[in-house]
What we know:
The protein has helices at residues 2-27, 159-188, 204-217, 219-224, 226-245, 254-261, 267-285, 292-309, 328-364, and strands spanning 30-35, 39-41, 45-55, 60-61, 70-72, 75-80, 84-88, 93-104, 108-112, 116-119, 122-125, 129-134, 196-198, 321-323.
Amino acid sequence: MNIFNNKCLLLLCFLLPLKWGAGSALAQVQVDVKIDSTALFIGQQTGLTLSVTYDAKQKLKLPDIKKGQELVPDIEVVEVDKPDTVVLNDGKRLTVSQAYTITAWDSALYRLPPMEVMVDTTRYESNSLALKVLTVDVDTLHLDQFFPPNGIMELPFMWEEWRMVAFGSLLFLLMLVCIGYLYHHVKHGKPIVRFIRRKKKLPPHQVAMSEIERIKSERKWAEEDSKEYYTLLTDTLRNYIRDRYGFNAMEMTSTEIIDRLIAENNEEALDELREIFRTADLVKFAKYSTLINENDANLVAAVEYVNQTKIEVDPNAKPEPEVIKETDQKRLTQVKMMRVAIGVLAVLSVAMLAWIIWRSADLLM
Length: 365
């Protein structure tokens, strides 16, 4: 008998620690559910909060309850909030709270079943709740106090609400115009800004006389190289004729120039010009050697021709505008700047369009 009692005592001593350890393990997970109101009218809403406390090393899985789902018949979940986590005991334990918004569509006393969660591989259940749903009493003797629902009210247009959208739309259109303008100039290689300065343009006869004076000062051409001398002299006269009469004398022969000038009816001046061109053609093409006096005479004849055919210019006339051509490097730099501007404006216009769409949709809702 003593031996049997001793064995029972040993068995109890072995099982009690196991039972206590198991109870402690189960006590580590706490599942609780609370409801904000245990009674409500049909169609009213109330909050339902599920709380789970467990060790931070464990893995929690909340019940898969979605918006629109019914917990029990006629008890519908209206909204499911995001879980909220609270850290306890220096991060050793966690409390996760999941809030739900529920409503009821029929009057009755409902039992809300326990909510199940999974912690690691173990299933835990919360407590069950009761919810009383009340109906609204209708006074059937005084029905005149009830009115049908009002119709849909059209809100008036308020410029203050749409003002920023209107300004944003104008800014968006302006950016599109700028993008198109810059793209056109980049595609055709046109500068955005053309620099124009006023410069007094000398009349053709003054330009010709200045060039003749320069030829006269370089007498070595006449002494050493008659061909170079007459080339410079005839080119000066051709340029003068081009600017004076308006046709391209530089691309014409001496005979073609004389024939074109016959219409001016200045035979005396044409005789001097013929002699100059004749001597120049002989020197350039027939290797004709001229004398110093002959060269001087042709130079004087060129001066006489210019003086006889010149047109005096009004000294009070406004100077003609001159377009300053840009260098290739400046043009390339400007093209790069325009491309960067197009990119920036494109990004801003997309952002502006997105904002206009978002703001308009927000105002229309």
